[in-house]
Each structure stands twice: as structure tokens, then as C-alpha cells.
């Protein structure tokens, strides 16, 4: 069986230290104020997106500032493996080929003429919250904010597949982006490769899988994949390929770099570990406020709040503990449950006594799965969905 990778308290302590630093540094200090030029013009990130990497640009949403259901485009986290490609919507084409009866080449105008669907979906990077793991693991050191929720509009992938007509031998649909590079590894990529990821037909045909050209009502921003990206609602972010230029239907499972050499985990088949590409988002909740290290006044009402999400189910319950997990109370869920979108939650807290407190939140989904308290090592450096304690001081 799996050994827990760390105790909640161990993370809590590290979290407290880091939280204390970031709470005391003015926002203008963050180097993110200097970024943005790289994306050219209109998409300069606001000064408060946290820069995790400058080249390629990897930007995190400061999760403690969560204050609404839809994440504005300029506050949505950015996860790039390679430099963002320069694409011009007027000359850009989407190729659909492989095991199809009618290979297609669609222009941006062609796509916009096809029936449009809107889905509000949460994207979370499979590596979100990695910085809180102890022992440390490799990859971009995201804290809480490699996650966002947006209203995506575009053409269902199913509609395009139907136009092309799948051959009987079709097995998977590979989504390929225009961005390319050589991954230095380890392991190294086979030379220069594009970012690409596949979907089995069963998922590719579902109506929640969009080829999106709009994000929150605006044209898709460059850093989020313009002119066209996939939005694979319910799955971790890596499946939602940006800057789409090719859809390749294959006759056997695709074993590309981003679903073999990384973005995989050990699935157990009766105990036997088998390396499996990451797909659906695990049930998870995060506390936005209080942030780690926050100092809270005693005897006053405080609004503990955050968000909770899951992939192909819905969040049915969020519980909060303000005593390190000894007791739990059900939080209030905001709005209505919508498939694929996160649910904001809140809970009033009136700490009477001064001292140190550990705040936890845990979500439950529609099939009764509860957010785990312990880290599962089989997940390698991905799917960090266990309960993350937040240590605060009441004074
Ligand atoms: N072409 C391309 N698509 C991509 C990526 C990429 O590097 N290149 N990153 C993926 C990953 S790992 C995530 S988490 C999401 C992030 O989407 P966002 O940058 O719009 O937030 O895009 C996915 N799609
Ligand atoms: Mo990601």
C-alpha cells in the first residue's frame, strides 16, 4: 500500500513560513510587473500575476485574491511549455487528418460559421500546488493558483470529427499545437516536438470538449491559445491544447512525450503499478482566505472562503475545519452547481481565543469521493488534490 508522502502538519509548517513572507511583500515588488512585454501588446499580465517562469511565460493567479466565479482573462494562469507561437488568424488553418474519410482544412472563418456551444469550465494544471509538497518534486513550483474558471465558447470537437467522418479503425484524436521546442529533460524529447496530447474517441465525442475561440466573451487571448484551443472540460489543463493547428485521428493509442515521459501517474491494477496518462480532475478544494500566515483578529467574524472542483462529477459538499481536522462543519456553497465549473464556498468563523490555528477544507463529489487527507506517492509530481492545511495566527 502507499506510504503517505507527508503529514498535513509538515506541509502546514512550510506553508506558514512562505505565507508569512508573501504577506509582507508589497505586490509591486513581484517581478511580474516587468513581464508581459513578451506576449506583445494587449495581454500584459496585471502586476499581481505571480511569475513562475519568464521564458517560456508561466504565470500564476494569486489564489488569495479569489473574489468571483469567472476568472477574468488577464488574471487566468498561463502554463506554457514552449514560447507562444505567432499565429495570424487570417492565414491560420486547422488540419483534420489521419483515420478520417474526408480530411479537412478549416480557416478561422470556417470555424466561426459552425454551431457554437458555451461551457463554463475550470482548468487546473495537473501540477498545481506542487510547491507545497514535502519532499520537493520537480516541475514548475506552483502554489495554489494554477487554476481558473472561464466561460469558453467554440465548436464542439465532435462536430468537426463528424464533418471529417471517422474511419472504423479510428481509436484516438491527437490535438497538436503550433508551439514547438526541444525538452532538455530528463528525459529528453526526440528533438524538436510540438505540444500535443490525445483523447480517446469516447471523450473526444463528448459535447463538453470544445474547440474554443472565445474566453469569457472576448476573443481568445494570445497567451491562452489564440486563434483556437481545445477545452477538454473535466480533465486537467494539459489536455486543453492551445494554438491548435492539427487534429490527427489515429488507429492506435498515441504515446507522445506529454503523455508518457510526463503528465502520467502510476495507476494500480490489483496492486500492480501501470503508467497511465493523466486525465480527469480529482475532487479538490482550496482555501483562498485566510492565506497561510495570515493574522486574524480574535473575537470577530471572519469569512473563510475558497473554491472546490472536480472533473467528470460535481461538488456536492465542502467541509471546513478550523482546528486542524478534529471537527468539521459544512460550508455554504455559492450559486448553483454547474457541470465542469468550480463552486465557490464560504464559512463564517469567529475565533474566540488567541493562538495558532490550522484551517482545512475538504470537498466531496457526486460519487461520494472525498478529498484525501494524505498525499498519494503514485501520483508522482501531479494531481496534488489532498487537503492542504493553512496555518494562521489569531491575535
Ligand atoms: N499548445 C500548448 N497547449 C497547452 C500547453 C502548452 O504548453 N502548449 N500547456 C497545457 C497545460 S499543462 C495547461 S495546464 C493548460 C493551461 O492553459 P492556460 O495557459 O490557458 O491557463 O494549457 C495546456 N495546453
Ligand atoms: Mo498543466
Summarize the structure.
The protein is mainly β.
How would you explain this protein's 3D organization?
This protein is mostly beta strands and 395 residues long. The protein contains 4 helices and 24 strands. Strands 5-4-13-8-9 form a 5-stranded mixed β-sheet. A hairpin with a 2-residue loop joins strand 10 and strand 11. The protein is globular and about 70 Å long. The two termini are 42 Å apart. Bound molecules: ligand MTE and molybdenum atom (MO). The site of molybdenum atom has 6 residues, from loops.
Describe the largest sheet. 5 strands, mixed
Give me the secondary-structure category.
Answer: mainly beta
Parts with pLDDT < 50 across at least 5 consecutive residues: 1-42
State the distance separating the first and last CA atoms: 42 Å
Estimate the helix proportion, in percent: under 10%
Bound molecules: the ligand Nc1nc2c(c(=O)[nH]1)N[C@H]1C(S)=C(S)[C@@H](COP(=O)(O)O)O[C@H]1N2, molybdenum atom
Helices, by number, come to 4
> Strand order across the biggest sheet?
5-4-13-8-9
Q: Could you state the order of secondary-structure elements as H and E?
A: HEEEEEHEEHEEHEEEEEEEEEEEEEEE
The coarse overall form would be: globular
What gyration radius follows from the Cα positions, in whole Å? 21 Å
* Total strands: 24
Beta-strand percentage? 35-45%
Record keyword descriptors for this entry.
binds ligand MTE, disordered N terminus, binds molybdenum atom, mainly beta, 24 strands, 4 helices, 395 residues, five-stranded mixed β-sheet, five-stranded antiparallel β-sheet
Write the layout of secondary structure elements.
Blueprint: H1 8-24, E1 50-53, E2 58-60, E3 78-79, E4 93-98, E5 104-107, H2 108-113, E6 117-124, E7 147-156, H3 157-164, E8 172-182, E9 192-200, H4 201-204, E10 209-215, E11 218-219, E12 229-232, E13 244-250, E14 264-269, E15 272-277, E16 284-289, E17 295-296, E18 302-309, E19 315-321, E20 329-330, E21 332-333, E22 343-349, E23 355-365, E24 390-394
Parallel strand pairs: 4-13, 17-24
Antiparallel strand pairs: 1-2, 2-3, 4-5, 6-7, 7-10, 8-9, 8-13, 10-11, 10-12, 14-15, 16-18, 18-22, 19-20, 19-23, 21-22, 23-24
The structure holds the ligand Nc1nc2c(c(=O)[nH]1)N[C@H]1C(S)=C(S)[C@@H](COP(=O)(O)O)O[C@H]1N2 and molybdenum atom (MO).
Molybdenum atom is lined by residues 79, 125-127, 237-238.
Amino acid at each position: 500500500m502507499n506510504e503517505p508522502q507527508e503529514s498535513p502538519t509538515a506541509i502546514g509548517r512550510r506553508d506558514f513560513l512562505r505565507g508569512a513572507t508573501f504577506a509582507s511583500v508589497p505586490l509591486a515588488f513581484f517581478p511580474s510587473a516587468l513581464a508581459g512585454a513578451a506576449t506583445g501588446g494587449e495581454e500584459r499580465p496585471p502586476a499581481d500575476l505571480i511569475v513562475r517562469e519568464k521564458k517560456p511565460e508561466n504565470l500564476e493567479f494569486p489564489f488569495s485574491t479569489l473574489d468571483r466565479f469567472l476568472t477574468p482573462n488577464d488574471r487566468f494562469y498561463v502554463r506554457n511549455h514552449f514560447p507562444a507561437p505567432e499565429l495570424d488568424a487570417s492565414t491560420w488553418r486547422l488540419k483534420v487528418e489521419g483515420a478520417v474519410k474526408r480530411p479537412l482544412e478549416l480557416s478561422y472563418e470556417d470555424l466561426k460559421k459552425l454551431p457554437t456551444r458555451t461551457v463554463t469550465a475550470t482548468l487546473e494544471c495537473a501540477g498545481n500546488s506542487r510547491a507545497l509538497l514535502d519532499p520537493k518534486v520537480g516541475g514548475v513550483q506552483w502554489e495554489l493558483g494554477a487554476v481558473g474558471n472561464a466561460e469558453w465558447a467554440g465548436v464542439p470537437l465532435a462536430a468537426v470529427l463528424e464533418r471529417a467522418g471517422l474511419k472504423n479503425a479510428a481509436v484516438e484524436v491527437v490535438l497538436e499545437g503550433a508551439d514547438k521546442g526541444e525538452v532538455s529533460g530528463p528525459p529528453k524529447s526526440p528533438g524538436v516536438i510540438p505540444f500535443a496530447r490525445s483523447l480517446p474517441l469516447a471523450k473526444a465525442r463528448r459535447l463538453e470538449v470544445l474547440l474554443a475561440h472565445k474566453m469569457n466573451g472576448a476573443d481568445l487571448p494570445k497567451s491562452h491559445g489564440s486563434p483556437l484551443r481545445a477545452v477538454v472540460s473535466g480533465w486537467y489543463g494539459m489536455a486543453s491544447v492551445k494554438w491548435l493547428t492539427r487534429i490527427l485521428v489515429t488507429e492506435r493509442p498515441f504515446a507522445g512525450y506529454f503523455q508518457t515521459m510526463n503528465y502520467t501517474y502510476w495507476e494500480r491494477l490489483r496492486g500492480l503499478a501501470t503508467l497511465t496518462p493523466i486525465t480527469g480532475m480529482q475532487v479538490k478544494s482550496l482555501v483562498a482566505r485566510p492565506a497561510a500566515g495570515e493574522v486574524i483578529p480574535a473575537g470577530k467574524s471572519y469569512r473563510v472562503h475558497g473554491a472546490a472542483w472536480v472533473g467528470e462529477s460535481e461538488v456536492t459538499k465542502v467541509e471546513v475545519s478550523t482546528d486542524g481536522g478534529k471537527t468539521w462543519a459544512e460550508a455554504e456553497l455559492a450559486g448553483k452547481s454547474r457541470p465542469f465549473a468550480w463552486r465557490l464556498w464560504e464559512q463564517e468563523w469567529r475565533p474566540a481565543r488567541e493562538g495558532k490555528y490550522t484551517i482545512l477544507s475538504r470537498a466531496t463529489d457526486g460519487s461520494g469521493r472525498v478529498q484525501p487527507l494524505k498525499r498519494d506517492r503514485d501520483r508522482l509530481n501531479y494531481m496534488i488534490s489532498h487537503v492542504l492545511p493553512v496555518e494562521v495566527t489569531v491575535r
